[in-house]
What does this fold into?
Amino acid sequence: MASGHRAQWKGFLKVGEVSCGVALYTAASTAERITFNTINKATGNRVNRIFVDSETDDPVPKEEQTKGFEIDDGRYIMIDPEEIATTVPQSNKTLEIEAFVPCSEIDDVYFDKPYYLTPSDRIGSAVFTLLRDGMKKSNVAAIARTVLFRRMRTVLVRPHGNGMIATTLQYDYEVRSSKAAFEGIPKLKIEGEMLDLAKHIISTKIGEFDPATFDDRYEQAVAELVKAKIEGRSLPKPKKVQVSKPNDLLAALRESAGLAGKSPEPPKRTAANANKGTARQPASRRAAKTATPAAAQRKAG
It folds into this structure.
């Protein structure tokens, strides 16, 4: 990893009897985000956070604070952080690969936090490269387990460029079922012009996944607000989003597709449709429709 970046964890990546030294580096950081301090409105001074006893209101210094698990209303079992550390399973700093799974089977709702995984020294580079390229060829990812930051974690390891990505995974009990979230969605069938317009609008917005083009509009808005405050000016209020009502949905779709005020095109008449329309008519009626005036006079005579 480039100098200036400190490894968050160092250990070993192991599968069977094959292993290599590896290091984890934070892949995502919020350090560049705009942050605020809590201020006393009356004085304009910064407010300090102080922990106080819930009953006596006396300040509690950090060295007198500990963890506690509530067993009853107002009753707690005190647990020292060192006691927690002794209960964590020993992992001897090893990312032990338990299985390889097809990439198509991975549900990203379980993804927690990504880390860059690299060899920690030149000695392990050959084994690291072997595992990385082997997974690329087989289109699989590795499920591994280790202790990270005093907690046993399941980690998904995937090839990524010249290195790999190690993503900590949520446990099954931590991920809520989608059934409860989706059960209130009504079952509707959209078809005809509305569906065609939706597909047309989607086709005009097809692009490529390029994170470099994603702008943090919240950060930009906050920065502009801070600048306006410094300059003593106010910002215009944003327009409210107009929610499309069911009765206006077709009109909104036509406007989005650039077809506002235009009549929908009639369905194209194909040879199959033309034959289908005449096939149901009796032969005598079809003959009457195609007869010429002269032929009709001769028949009458």
Observations:
- The domain at 9-30+92-174 is CATH 2.40.290.10 (Ku70; Chain: A; Domain 2).
